[in-house]
């Protein structure tokens, strides 16, 4: 084993002491430096937190501004909608007022039209009674149906009026055409089945099925009158024309002229 000399040991001590002298100040200074570093780090963290809060506040401010603008747009839309709604309500109120006036007018019209229809029906009934006695059952049934219709509460006035006008139109059409139909006629206490010929409202003629009896309704004497045999064939031919069994042609029929007023 090699032994060191005293001279060689002293420098080692000196070197070790010098090293301790160099290290000692660093060790002594490490405490305040660490605190300084910690303080700096805390300040950095605090600054970062502050910046984050600022960023969040800025975002919140931006969001609030956007929400404010959105609410403003909604308010404007609501104001526009309310204005339109008020205009619609005003228009509907005016229309409702007009309807109420129309309903009132309709009520007045209905009160006026019902008596009018009754008068029209009475006039039509008197006309049928004074007219040529053709289709008596059909025409009386029509009148009876109209009388019953006038008392029905489930039928409105417009429908009643339409039916009355329809009956008038049927009577008007009778005066524009010729018609042949079969029915029964009582002559001299005997009921005969005869063919009736109606020529508008000029004449109402009958002929028995065997052709032996031919006659007409006398409008002024209000009775049935017989025709001589010269009318048998013309009336038979006129019946065929009315039934469209023969082409139209001139027909010979009895027509009673109006009485001349006495001077």
Summarize the structure.
By secondary structure, this protein is of the alpha+beta class.
Topology:
Layout lengths: L5 H125 L5 H15 L6 H18 L3 E10 L2 E10 L3 E6 L5 E5 L4 E4 L5 H11 L21
Antiparallel strand pairs: 1-2, 2-3, 3-4, 4-5
Helix pairs in contact: 1-2, 1-3, 2-3
Description:
With 263 residues, the protein is α+β, with helices and mostly antiparallel strands. Among the domains are: 104-174; 177-256, no CATH class. The protein is built from four helices and five strands, in the order αααβββββα. The chain has helices at residues 6-130, 136-150, 157-174, 232-242; strands at residues 178-187, 190-199, 203-208, 214-218, 223-226. The protein has a five-stranded antiparallel sheet with strand order 1-2-3-4-5, with helices on one face. It is rod-shaped and about 160 Å long. Mean pLDDT is 82; it is low at 1-14. It comes from Alkalilimnicola ehrlichii. This is DUF3450 domain-containing protein.
